[in-house]
């Protein structure tokens, strides 16, 4: 159990750090009202988790330490639902109704599609 907790913590820390660095980079390059940094990170995270699940299934890894580190830890730390929810709340609060609806719909649809694509890349 302690080993799993450490693996999740290490993976989560690395995922969070990478998310932070990518967010800074995107915000320096792109200035639009759409929350492109969180959107990009979450879609990339969906693609990555699809790839990792595909690798796990293909190699019969099940509940391995590698899955705990990468899927639960890294992907869990890399993607962020709370930021997604807060950004949508702020957009609604600004009386901007189209943008959060677009953000929500595109995140869900493209997120699921990215998982599927990642999974199919491997299998």
Sketch the major β-sheet: none
Helix and strand sequence: HHHHH
Structural class: mainly alpha
Number of helices: 5
Structurally, how many domains make up the residues?
1
Instruction: Please mark out the parts with pLDDT under 50 across 5 or more consecutive residues, or reply none.
Output: none
**Helix fraction bin:** over 70%
Shape: globular
> Care to count the β-strands?
0
Strand portion: under 5%
Rg on CA atoms, Å: 16 Å
End-to-end distance: 31 Å
Mean pLDDT: 95
Features:
123 residues, mainly alpha, globular
Please tell me about this protein's structure.
By secondary structure, the chain is mainly α. It has one domain (2-122). Helix content is 84%, strand content 0%. It has five helices and no strands. The chain has helices at residues 2-29, 36-58, 65-78, 81-93, 98-122. It is globular, with a radius of gyration of 16 Å. The two termini are 31 Å apart.
What is the compact description of this entry?
The chain has helices at residues 2-29, 36-58, 65-78, 81-93, 98-122. With 123 residues, it is mainly alpha-helical.
């Amino acid at each position: 159990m302690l080993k799993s907790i450490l693996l999740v913590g290490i993976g989560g820390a690395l995922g969070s750090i990478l998310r932070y660095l990518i967010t800074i980079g995107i915000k320096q390059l792109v200035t639009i009202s759409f929350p492109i940094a969180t959107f990009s990170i979450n879609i990339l995270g969906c693609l990555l988790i699809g790839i990792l699940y595909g690798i796990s299934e293909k190699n019969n890894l099940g509940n391995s330490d590698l899955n705990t580190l990468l899927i639960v830890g890294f992907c869990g730390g890399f993607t962020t639902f709370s930021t997604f929810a807060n950004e949508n709340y702020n957009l609604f609060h600004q009386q901007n109704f189209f943008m959060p609806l677009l953000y929500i719909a595109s995140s869900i649809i493209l997120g699921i599609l990215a998982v599927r694509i990642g999974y199919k890349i491997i299998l």
